[in-house]
Amino acid sequence: MAEESSLSQLFSPSSVAVVGASTNPFSGGYQFTRFLIDHGFKGKLFPVNPAASEILGLKAYRKLTEVPEPNVDYVISCIPADGILPLLDDCSKKNVKLVHLFTARLKETGRDKESKLQSEIVAKARRLGIRILGPNCMGTYYPKLGLSFNHDLPTESGPVGGFFQSGGGAGEFVRYAALRGVRFSKIISFGNASDIDEVELLDYFASDSETRIITSYIEGVKDGRKFARALAQATKKKPVIILKGGRGKAGTKLALSHTASLAGSFKIWQAALKQYGAVMVTTFQELIDQTVAFAFLPAITGRRVFIAGGGGGKSMISADVWEEEGFELPDLSPEFRRKLKDKVPELWDWVRNPIDASLFQGTPVVDINLLEWLSDEGGFDFLVANLTQDDPLTEDIWENFLAANFVQCVTSIKNKGKPVLCVVETAEVSSAEMEKWKWQAIAETRRQIVNQGLAVFPSPDRAARALRRLVDYWTWRENEN
Predict the structure, then answer these.
(1) Along the 481 residues of the chain, how does pLDDT read in single tens digits?
(2) pTM
(3) Comparing C-alpha atoms, which of 227, 167, 173 is closest to residue 203?
């Protein structure tokens, strides 16, 4: 618990100094200063540069020791590696608690000289009572405090925390998950893990009251047994989603040159994650899908699903992919069919689950009405709403009827407390195609659904995989407890 408290203080600074801050917009020192200004960092910010008097409208200081504060909590280092040992002396004089080393080209180079220097940096920091994040990392994104390691990231907080060895991967994850409505407690990029490592970060997020879901990109661990023990404890409290980098021969070699990580046997990773209830994914897209599932859906342990929307082909594929992931598509109940017979007697005994939306064209009933009717039935664990996108409808019908009713329907189901997710396929279109009203309308509808706090997926197969993992985790948790 003391370690968790210590990390909480490290990640909640009241003052930050950017050592190596610069007027060059292509430099890391310029960018980190800009990130903190743009995100409204709530503490004091001090650019440090021996050759500049002002950077981005802030007074700059020639040395860290010239900052007019007795204490500087957090230092972001954007200087070359050979300047870190002297910097630590200055940090000690300013009572610095944490040094984030954006500085790279240390152990990840594989060279003896650079590896030795990294060890010397860590040893000296420990003697001085200073913690090291990195080297070779992007640091901390903490929207509640206005800390950020990238531009234009959400300023609102949320329940998703995580630790990433890849700084670029961390930024990509935050940016694209945010488009799906996900918001974050803290995301930590920890690079070479010379001091603060994956075990300490996993323990921290497991105890962090602001984090409900833990995400991670890991290339390797320093101590497999310690990590396994931490994982066994964390997964009993919260979902832990892990994207493992370096699964193959090429990836293992790349992990050594990227963050100096020993990737380890992938089969051992698979077995350990399964044993301890972690959720393993294999791409950043799957990591985002899985985070969306846990963020917006409840603890589902059943596998019965009702699906509505889409034409005959989409309905057929939906049936296939959901069944292939181990889900059951129950038949419609006699009571539901009697209700259907009153409205569309020509279809009442024809319709099946998944419900083919094209069957209802020209009738008083559309698939949207049927989905809402289904939500009042028993015999299911969650509902899937496929947004029909291939109907030959005009813009006014789409915007004023189909899209508006779809959003209203799925929002109503969610507000009833019934688990529902949406599949909206926006495809891969060029900028020229995005000028067309249909693609803009689909994107706008998707945005409205996301804004209602609903889980949205880009295809049936990605939705089914994410839900299968979600159900597997909550079933495991139920059995463990």
Answers:
(1) 344 447 999 999 999 999 999 999 999 999 999 999 999 999 999 999 999 999 999 999 999 999 999 999 999 999 999 999 999 999 999 999 999 999 999 999 989 999 999 999 999 999 999 999 999 999 999 999 999 999 999 999 999 999 999 999 999 999 999 999 999 999 999 999 999 999 999 999 999 999 999 999 999 888 888 999 999 999 999 999 999 987 655 434 444 444 444 455 778 888 889 999 999 999 999 999 999 999 999 999 999 999 988 776 778 888 999 999 999 999 999 988 888 888 888 888 888 899 887 777 777 776 667 788 889 888 999 999 998 766 667 888 888 878 888 899 999 999 999 999 999 987 777 888 888 888 888 889 999 999 999 999 999 999 999 999 999 999 999 998 7
(2) 0.93
(3) 227
